[in-house]
């Protein structure tokens, strides 16, 4: 059974080589021809079949490939002693099965082969890799142990140990399994010792996981310790173990040694100081040890300074500052001295920087000055000082920043367009200051200026990602989402950045009418994540093969981190909801989509899976602008709350709040597809019930399930079911005052829609004791939708001059609750007129359906009116000539003799093109500055708004048309 | 204060962001993962005081040739953190690990002929010498200096890896074409 020389999978190599060559050169048609010929000679060779399957898969013929694979598998597992089985055959099949998402079939082939040929290491390794790909930690461990027993090799033992660690860290394994792993290792070491550095790290980590720090330290200082090749790595580990064991004195000693070797290791210094002060346990309360230990640190740092003859070493100098800072915190410092030390430090650092530049032969005083000014601005910004300045001063700062940028353009004369320019940060800083001015004064001019400084910067250098991210948020806020999306696309977000950066645009897109773009975004993201998960299985095995055991664990944990990503889950749930929205005018399509989602249970299962597990949040929040620290918070939507409300202070709480909200939102959204499915069913049943009044059994299971889901839904909204019903009736009857449009209201309207669908069958909501005007749940839905559209339109100004408008709310209202309600109506109508025409039996619709028909008629009329109301508003917005809009926006920054208010920054930017000279900045920058068009920026904003409004109008028109078509049927 | 430490798998998130913000291009994630899972001792990151990654070095071992040697695949440092010796520290850490863990005889790298700043760093600060010129090495047709630095070359110790023919190495060849394996020179110091 072993591969014979010159044979591949039992076939002479000369016969298969041409096929390999054809596959390698992507000539799949030719490869297929050759493989068919090969099969005619070896019709029962699993390898020949595996090759054919591989080619078919590459050609995209997945079904054929699978059937050929299954054929090969059958022959393989047929217990026929004439059949040739080897690793090449199995691994080829494995590749195809994996690509076809049937890992388990590849595994079962290997399992069979391993039983047939016990003790074959090659096959066992193949089986091990199958289990690795499936993350079957227990089975991995079992087969690794078997291999270890056969071959006695260290690596197999470590594969087993890793598999055990994975069971505990990423599976359901109990911690006592660590003991088992430790025992295995101990026994092996006693007889064979250890030979790989990574094996030692695994052993130490195993002991650390069991809090056996003493044992770990003993091993590290013993013979095995020599396996650690890098001395400082060993010291670092020793220091950490000692600190965790609570031996702070010894740990401080080790860190001190480490600092002598690496005087510029800041982290090490912090650990050293931490150990001296016993940060980990109780802070030293007495003065005595504090003083003596601090003076110990002072002496040591002084020694480091003397010894550090290398001028570029900064750590000891910073360490000195840190010590003084800690003294201050302890109440034993001298604030003036700290300030003085701080000054000394900066003088030293800037002196060094200058020295470096002099060596490079580019003494640049202005560059240094510019750098210092930026540092001052940044410090002002980071300590929140900018939030406490009066408006006038704040404006002056924005002006200064912009001026400084323009004046220093000449410093970047020689730079390549791809290189960052000097003072680039000034424009981002100016932008955030201007946004703050807008927040405080609500003067549109500041908002426009905040955009202009960035567009000006991008005209000069189009690569600045900071500008682009700020613009994404500003344009989104100003209802120019298509333009925001354009800026986002220019960031060229791909790979893992899809996970960490796409949240800048995704939430806005989810509530927008830009369905085609949204669909691209979701698809691209899901493709990246799913591809990664497919690849990561192979990569894990790579770490095993390279004996980087600690990386195996790290990598599997990393995979889990991505798998539990809140964004991943959200997108998996939102993608089908988008499809439902896109097809909501065609009930057959809606049913098709729901069917592919296993009648909506798919999303439910997704959210059930994560219950109890914690989600991960991988968005890089530090990249977000101050006014929107998380996707669901935008300070600009509310009033300025005075200097006390510096948003930065609240960021931490805000993030926590958002993470909690995400869990709720995900669960809430995951209920939608199933509720839609059940509502459709319930609606059609209600008609059938009426048609076949005698004898038909109403499917009460549907009713019950829908009610359970409704109860779950209201629970997420923090209301018991009965109270929730009361509440929506309160909303519609006007007993409850109109609330400002919010995402919550969309949830309540969705609830009302599904409540009505449920009530069609259950008839549990009674009306006798209610407001006589709300006579049915149909009416409830109609009123609620109409009322909220009316009120929202009433309080929404013209989109062009009302940033942060309620447009997303209206979009959601029309594309969700209103759309779902229309789907329910479609379902009723389809049951009333099965063939799309009037039912022949009984001539007209059954008598008992008259009431229902009446309700439907009313509801259609109401939905049409509501939709038309939105359309009328949209047309008004669209009918305003662009020039008029342009005037409205642009005039906000024209000063026309005014002395206060926005326009100063604009003036600087505008005049820069005439002030800047070719000789100073070079032709590239000059041309870029001249190409910047402020009027163009304004027109782009207007065009973006226009395209957003038109997309929405299109959706409304189609909705109206489909409703009118149903009305005709009546 | 910037710290130099070994990279972890989790760092890949921030490393890739760092790459995006250094230059308007970035690598496939598989490329990073391949490096960290194969030669974890050769990846270092520079971390700012607030946990932000401001630079990194990616390196690998070439074991197919007779002389075991290391190769610097990618080096990046954020412009905001230049002139702090970040690149030098990263390079030194990777070179030491090549020498001490893998017993590398020498270390090689490629640099654009036009990239004076990076060239100076390699020759003057780090002691690299021009070994050869590779014509049209980069995608845009520019030549590269093939630079080398001799290491003390401890003898290859027992810690031996089995590379080559791996499940990923075949796929990865495609990524390692000239141009994608470019050192981030414009942001070096």
From TrEMBL, chain A:
Can you say where the TPR repeats lie in this chain?
232-265
UniProt xrefs under InterPro entries: NAA25_NatB_aux_su, TPR-like_helical_dom_sf, TPR_rpt
Domain of life according to the entry? Eukaryota
- Keywords, A to Z? TPR repeat
Q: Does the keyword Kinase apply?
A: no
Q: One Gene Ontology cellular component annotation?
A: NatB complex
Q: Which family does it belong to?
A: Belongs to the MDM20/NAA25 family.
Entry protein name: N-terminal acetyltransferase B complex auxiliary subunit NAA25
From TrEMBL, chain B:
- Region labeled Disordered — which residues? 155-189
**Composition bias, Basic residues:** 155-164
Q: Which PROSITE patterns match?
A: GNAT
One annotated GO molecular function is: protein N-terminal-serine acetyltransferase activity
Q: Name one GO cellular component term.
A: NatA complex
Q: Where would I find the N-acetyltransferase domain in this sequence?
A: 2-152
Which of UniProt's keywords are assigned here? Acyltransferase, Transferase
Q: Which top-level group of life is the source organism from? A: Eukaryota
PANTHER family in the record, alphabetically?
Answer: N-TERMINAL ACETYLTRANSFERASE (PTHR23091), N-TERMINAL AMINO-ACID N(ALPHA)-ACETYLTRANSFERASE NATA (PTHR23091:SF4)
- Say which family it is in: Belongs to the acetyltransferase family. ARD1 subfamily.
Q: What's the protein called, per UniProt?
A: N-terminal acetyltransferase A complex catalytic subunit NAA10
Q: Which organism is it from?
A: Sesamum alatum
């Amino acid at each position: 059974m072993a591969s014979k020389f010159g044979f591949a999978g039992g076939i002479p190599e000369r016969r298969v080589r041409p096929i390999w060559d054809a596959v390698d050169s992507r000539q799949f048609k030719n490869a297929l021809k050759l493989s068919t010929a090969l099969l005619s000679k070896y019709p029962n060779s699993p390898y020949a079949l595996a090759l054919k399957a591989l080619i078919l898969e590459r050609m995209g013929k997945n079904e054929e490939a699978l059937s050929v694979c299954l054929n090969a598998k059958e022959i393989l597992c047929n217990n026929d002693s004439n059949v040739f089985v080897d690793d090449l055959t199995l691994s080829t099949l494995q590749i195809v099965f994996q690509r076809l998402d049937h890992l388990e079939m590849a595994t079962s082939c290997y399992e069979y082969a391993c039983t047939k040929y016990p003790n074959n290491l090659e096959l066992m390794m193949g089986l091990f890799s199958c289990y690795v790909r499936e993350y079957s930690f227990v089975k991995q461990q079992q087969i690794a142990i078997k291999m270890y027993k056969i071959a006695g090799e260290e690596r197999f033992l470590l594969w087993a140990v890793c598999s055990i660690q994975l069971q505990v860290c990423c599976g359901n394994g109990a911690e006592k399994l660590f003991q088992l792993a430790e025992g295995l290792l101990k026994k092996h070491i006693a007889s064979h010792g250890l030979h790989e550095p990574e094996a030692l790290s695994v052993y130490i980590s195993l002991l650390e996981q069991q809090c056996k720090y003493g044992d770990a330290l003993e091993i590290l200082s013993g013979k095995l310790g020599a396996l650690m090749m890098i001395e400082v790595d060993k010291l670092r580990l020793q220091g950490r173990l000692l600190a965790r064991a609570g031996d702070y004195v010894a740990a401080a000693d080790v860190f001190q040694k480490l600092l002598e070797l690496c005087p510029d290791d800041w982290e090490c210094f912090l650990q050293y100081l931490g150990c001296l002060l016993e940060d980990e346990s109780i802070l030293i309360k007495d003065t005595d040890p504090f003083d003596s230990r601090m003076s110990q640190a002072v002496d040591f740092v002084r020694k480091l300074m003397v010894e550090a003859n290398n001028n570029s070493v900064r750590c000891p100098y910073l360490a000195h500052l840190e010590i003084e800072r800690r003294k201050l915190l302890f109440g034993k410092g001298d604030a003036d001295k700290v300030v003085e030390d701080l000054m000394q430090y900066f003088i030293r650092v800037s002196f060094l920087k200058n020295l470096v530049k002099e060596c490079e032969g580019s003494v640049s005083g202005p560059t240094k000055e510019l750098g210092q000014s930026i540092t001052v601005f940044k410090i002002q910004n980071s300590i929140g000082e900018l939030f406490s300045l009066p408006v006038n001063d704040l404006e002056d700062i924005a002006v200064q920043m912009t001026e400084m940028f323009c004046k220093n353009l000449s410093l970047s004369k020689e730079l390549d367009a791809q290189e960052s320019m000097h003072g680039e940060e000034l424009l981002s800083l100016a932008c955030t200051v201007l946004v703050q001015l807008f927040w405080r004064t609500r003067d549109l001019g500041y908002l426009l200026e905040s955009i202009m400084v960035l567009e000006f910067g991008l005209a000069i250098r189009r690569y600045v990602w900071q500008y682009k991210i700020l613009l994404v948020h500003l344009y989104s806020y100003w209802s120019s989402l298509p333009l925001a999306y354009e800026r986002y696309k220019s960031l060229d977000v791909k790979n893992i950045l899809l996970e960490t950066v796409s949240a800048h645009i995704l939430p806005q897109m989810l509530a927008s009418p830009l369905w085609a773009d949204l669909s691209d975004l979701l698809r691209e993201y899901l493709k990246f994540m799913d591809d990664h998960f497919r690849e990561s299985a192979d990569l894990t095995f790579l770490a095993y093969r390279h004996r980087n055991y600690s990386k195996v664990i790290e990598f599997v944990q990393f995979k889990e981190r991505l798998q539990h990503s809140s964004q991943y889950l959200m997108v998996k749930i939102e993608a089908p909801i988008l499809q439902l929205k896109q097809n909501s005018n065609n009930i057959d399509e809606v049913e098709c989509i729901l069917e592919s989602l296993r009648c909506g249970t798919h999303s439910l299962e997704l959210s059930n899976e994560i219950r109890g597990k914690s989600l991960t949040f991988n968005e890089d929040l530090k990249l977000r602008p101050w006014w929107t620290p998380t996707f669901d918070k935008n300070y600009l939507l509310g009033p300025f709350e005075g200097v006390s409300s510096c948003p930065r202070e609240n960021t931490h709480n805000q993030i926590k709040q958002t993470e909690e909200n995400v869990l709720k939102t995900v669960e809430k959204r995951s209920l939608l597809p199933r509720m839609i499915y059940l509502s459709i069913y319930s609606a059609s049943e209600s008609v059938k019930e009426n048609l076949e009044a005698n004898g038909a059994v109403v499917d009460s299971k549907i009713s019950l399930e829908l009610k359970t889901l409704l109860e779950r839904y209201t629970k997420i909204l923090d209301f018991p079911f009965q109270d929730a019903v009361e509440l929506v009736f309160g909303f519609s009857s006007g007993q409850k005052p109109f609330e400002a449009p919010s995402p919550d209201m969309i949830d309540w309207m969705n609830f009302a829609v599904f409540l009505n669908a449920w009530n069609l069958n259950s008839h549990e909501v009674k009306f006798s004791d209610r407001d006589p005007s709300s006579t049915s749940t149909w009416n409830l839905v109609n009123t609620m939708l109409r009322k909220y559209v009316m009120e929202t339109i009433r309080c929404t100004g013209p989109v062009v001059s009302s940033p942060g408008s309620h447009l997303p709310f209206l979009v959601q209202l029309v594309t969700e609750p209103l759309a779902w309600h229309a789907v329910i109506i479609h379902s009723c109508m389809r049951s009333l007129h099965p063939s799309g025409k009037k039912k022949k039996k009984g001539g007209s619709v059954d008598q008992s359906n008259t009431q229902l028909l009446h309700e439907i008629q009313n509801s259609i009329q109401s939905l049409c009116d509501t939709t038309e109301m939105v359309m009328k508003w949209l047309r008004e917005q669209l009918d305003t000539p662009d020039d008029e809009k342009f005037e409205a926006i642009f005039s906000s920054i024209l000063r026309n003799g005014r002395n206060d208010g926005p326009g100063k920054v604009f003036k600087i930017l505008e005049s820069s093109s005439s002030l800047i000279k070719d000789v100073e900045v070079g032709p590239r920058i000059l041309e870029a500055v001249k190409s910047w068009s402020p009027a163009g920026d304004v027109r782009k904003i207007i065009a973006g708004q226009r395209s957003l409004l038109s997309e929405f109008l299109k959706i409304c028109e189609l909705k109206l048309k489909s409703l009118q078509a149903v009305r005709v049927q009546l | 204060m910037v710290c130099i430490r070994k990279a972890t798998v989790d760092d890949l998130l921030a490393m890739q962001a760092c790459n995006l913000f250094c230059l308007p291009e970035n690598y496939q994630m598989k490329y990073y993962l391949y490096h960290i899972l194969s030669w974890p001792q050769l990846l270092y990151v520079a971390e700012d005081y607030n946990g932000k990654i401001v630079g990194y070095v990616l390196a690998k071992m070439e074991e197919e040739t007779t002389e075991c040697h290391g190769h610097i695949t990618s080096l990046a440092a954020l412009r905001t953190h230049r002139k702090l010796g970040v690149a030098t520290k990263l390079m030194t850490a990777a070179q030491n690990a090549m020498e001490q863990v893998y017993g590398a005889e020498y270390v090689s790298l490629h640099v654009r002929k036009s990239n004076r700043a990076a060239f100076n760093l390699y020759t003057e600060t780090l002691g690299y010498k021009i070994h050869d010129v590779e014509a049209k090495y980069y995608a845009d047709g520019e030549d590269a200096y093939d630079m080398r630095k001799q290491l003390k070359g401890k003898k290859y110790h027992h810690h031996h890896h089995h590379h080559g023919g791996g499940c990923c190495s075949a796929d990865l060849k495609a990524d390692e074409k000239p141009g994608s394996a470019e050192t981030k020179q414009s942001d070096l110091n």
